[in-house]
Amino acid sequence: MTIAIQVERQREHDRRFWKDLKDAVAPPEPSQKDGLIYWRERILYTILAGGLALGLFALAPAIVMAIKEKLWHLAILNTMAYLCAVGLLVLPRIRYKVRASVTLLMSYAVGLYVILSVGLLSGGPAWLFAFTVLTAVLLGLKAACTALTFNGITLAIIGWLIGTGQFGESYTVFSTLEKGIAAGAGFMLLNAVAAISVAVLVRGLQSTAQREKAATDNLKRERRHLIQAKENLKSEIDDRKQAEELLKDSELKYRILVENANDAIFIIQDDLVKFHNKKTEDLTGYHAEELAKGPFSSFYHHEDRNMILERRRRRENGETPTNTYPVRIIGKSGEELWVELSTALIKWQGRPATINFFRNVTQQKKLEAQLQRAQKMEAIGTLAGGVAHDLNNILSGLVSYPELLLMDLPEDSPLKKPILTIQKSGEKAAAIVQDLLTLARRGVAVTEVVNLNNIISEYLKSPEYEKLKLYHPNVQVETDLETNLLNISGSPVHLSKTIMNLISNAAEAMTHGGSIFISVRNQYIDKPIGGYDDVAEGDYVVCTISDTGVGIAPDDMERIFEPFYTKKVMGRSGTGLGMAVVWGTIKDHKGYIDVESTEGKGTKFTLSFPVTRKEAALDKPMMSIKKYMGKGESILIVDDMEEQREIASGILTKLGYSVTSVSSGEKAVSYLKEHTADLIVLDMIMAPGIDGLETYKRILELLPEQKAIIASGFSETDRVQEAHRLGAGAYVKKPYILERIGMAVRAELDETSVSSQ
């Protein structure tokens, strides 16, 4: 063990000793007792400690002197007094009043002993004077009065002893009774003033201390109350925070529900939008600032507005009108939308309001209208079929017998003209019956492979068209017929009549002249297209006939295909069955019809016929197939539509290529990691997954020299052009035609061969 450790242990031992001594001797802290008692104990402690410390210097000489003078009683008394003081100091467990009383009596005894031993002109009177003052300090006013009484009696006895000569030596100062009384009275007066003053001061301090203690206690109680209030407030704040967090969580959940709802949700107060979700903006097309400007009733269709406001008024008056009903609104683009409106009364910021839900049912209404239209046309067709059957029997005589009668009549017979009139009337009636059969969808036999270009070209060379031009000389007809048009399956007669009816109606809609534009093209539709009819995806031959005439009124649009519904003069411009025949013919050919019209600007009819891959009997190739035959090169076809993969594979296999097909861009990339292909035929639009452009980019990362051609049902887009910039070859528009795709593949492969030489 080192010396430093021993020294440190000794120091720690000394510190503990002195601390224990202080705890044993020193009075308790004021927090444990009344303040005045504490300070009295401190004063007593100071008197004893100071007296012992200073008395030690006086005790030693006194004992030495007493021993030399053989005053043994004085030595014993001094020693006992000192030891008594030590006991009073080191034994704080003795009650304070006992220790204070003993200490004061000791001071009194010392003073009396000094007077008796030395005389009045010693320090004895000072000890008696201090006895009363210290009594006032340590024990209070009553004890001070008692001490004064002790001093008075003591002085009276000493004065009597002096007067009778029994005190020992005589004092000239007290030679007469009057002098003795005066001296004693002066001493007592000063002693009383000092003692009483100190006692009163101490009592005042005690009263002040008590008031201070009461105030301190009140402050402590207030502090405890404040602490308790603080704890309660903290607990309340914590509860409120927890409630706010729960409220925030609840609000967040409802906000997520509202913002992600498939319905438009909004709150109306005073006809102004106070709250709305994102779907409300998406549905109406208006931004938040535009919706807030209001009034919201202005967004309703003018025919529905009064009904909606009336129901709202009834609801606010306590009535219970229907809460959910269909209405029309006008979007920002001017489009008319059908929505299902659900509404309920609520309180918003303490005032009445309504919460409203819009569910877009435009497509549903459209489908319902299409279904109703189809059912109506089917019912009318059934009726027309029955009527046509009966009329055919009646008309047989009107059409056949006039011809027989005319064969027997001479040329100059007056009956010939009436019979010819009857015959023409019968033929017109027969044509109407034929239209009724078409409307009844019993007159079209779709058995031939036809080319719509030929149908249109033949009509434009027909006598009917020449007659139309004669009646409408100011009408110009323009055509745009796609070369290499795909074939369709249909009836040439009915298709020709459909084209004739549409062109005839277009010409009659332009009384002061105008233009008719006829276009025919191949089109591949990736996604369903909405319109008067919803066109499903697939390959189509699309015929568009548009004019610059007066247009069709919105109210008439829904009825233009109904039989006998016409704005023309009946009997002067047809039978009223023309558009009904068009509708029936399109449906018999499994096609679709769409109509767009603006009053004062014109009308456009779009007819979509599904293509057939069969060859027409009269079709002749425009180019020798040998020019684009394959030589066994490997072709990879990438297309998400199985039918398109099969068509392209069939064509290219027939042309002599080795063909592999995959259904996505990801599969194409995986395939080329393990195999090679001389050329890729890449569909541009594929879903789900990566599209053609992204597929081509990933393939170029693996094979920078890989050749490809692009295929799509749409016109060239920015993404197609970007693929060209990356190195892709020709753009082949769907639907596939043998010559077109064969030439594109051959040209790209030949260019590759030339480049590699």
Structure description:
This protein is an alpha/beta fold and 757 residues long. The chain folds into five domains: 23-216, no CATH class; 264-360, PAS domain (Beta-Lactamase, 2-Layer Sandwich), CATH 3.30.450.20; 366-433, Helix Hairpins; 444-612, Heat Shock Protein 90, CATH 3.30.565; 625-756, Rossmann fold (3-Layer(aba) Sandwich). 57% of the residues lie in helices and 16% in strands. The protein is built from 22 helices and 17 strands. It has helices at 3-25, 35-68, 72-90, 96-118, 124-139, 141-163, 177-259, 278-284, 288-293, 302-316, 362-408, 416-439, 452-460, 463-471, 492-508, 554-557, 578-588, 642-654, 665-674, 692-702, 718-726, 738-756; strands at residues 264-269, 272-276, 324-330, 336-348, 351-360, 448-450, 475-481, 487-490, 514-525, 538-547, 592-598, 602-612, 634-638, 658-662, 679-683, 708-712, 731-733. The strands form three sheets. Strands 6, 7, 8, 9, 10, 11 and 12 form a seven-stranded mixed sheet that branches. The longest helix is centred in the first third of the chain and has 83 residues, at 177-259. It is elongated. Mean pLDDT is 78; it is low at 442-446 and 753-757.
User: Termini distance?
Assistant: 99 Å
What count of domains describes the coordinates? 5
Quaternary assembly: single chain
Average pLDDT number = 78
Q: Strand portion, in percent?
A: 15-25%
Number of strands: 17
Look at the helices and sheets and give the structural class.
alpha/beta
